[in-house]
Amino acid sequence: ATAMGSSVASVVALILSTTGVGALVSPAHLTRVALARAQPCHPRAAGVVASEDLYTRKPLILTWENAELVVEEAQKDLSTVFGSSQENLDIGITGALELVDVDGPVIVVRLSGTFWHGIDDRVMPRVDNYIRQRIPEVIDVEFAPPLDTGDTGPAPKFA
């Protein structure tokens, strides 16, 4: 904690010297606040295993097999979006993600089922970010339209 404290103190001192905030708040107070906030923010410190996996996994090259792997990982790691637990399934959260195509540096996926959150504002950006983090060669993640609801299940929606 001492090494972290001294580096945080250095950053705080730099901020105070360049912004002129020093008269309003003491450096010791800012250091305590920065340390208190910095430690639980990191996934390891907060005990978030799924997020930690995303940060510690090595990036993959873009292949069909790796795209399939990352789509499967995304569904597991983003369980709050997809409702992968039995508890979520019991209340009707049945979100699913499938790989449709790999077209050069573009991955095409399809969403189906029911989600906790809105598709456009929460699910799609998280899936897009997850895939790009795992496979840096991907320049775009496209979302295919839902399949005809005949025998494949409902189009994606949120609860």
Helix content: 55-70%
Backbone structural class: alpha/beta
> How are the strands ordered across the major sheet?
1-2-4
Tally of separate helices: 9
> For the CA atoms, what is the radius of gyration?
21 Å
> Kindly, what is the distance between the CA atoms of the first and last residues, rounded to a whole number of angstroms?
44 Å
Brief overview:
The protein is an alpha/beta fold.
In words, what does this structure look like?
It is a single chain. The protein has helices at residues 2-19, 27-41, 43-46, 49-56, 64-77, 79-82, 86-90, 119-134, 149-152, and strands spanning 96-103, 106-112, 114-115, 140-143, 157-158. By secondary structure, the protein is α/β, with parallel strands linked by helices. Strands 1-2-4 form a three-stranded mixed sheet, covered by helices on one side.
Strand-helix topology:
Elements: H1 2-19, H2 27-41, H3 43-46, H4 49-56, H5 64-77, H6 79-82, H7 86-90, E1 96-103, E2 106-112, E3 114-115, H8 119-134, E4 140-143, H9 149-152, E5 157-158
Parallel strand pairs: 2-4, 3-5
Antiparallel strand pairs: 1-2
Helix pairs in contact: 1-2, 5-8
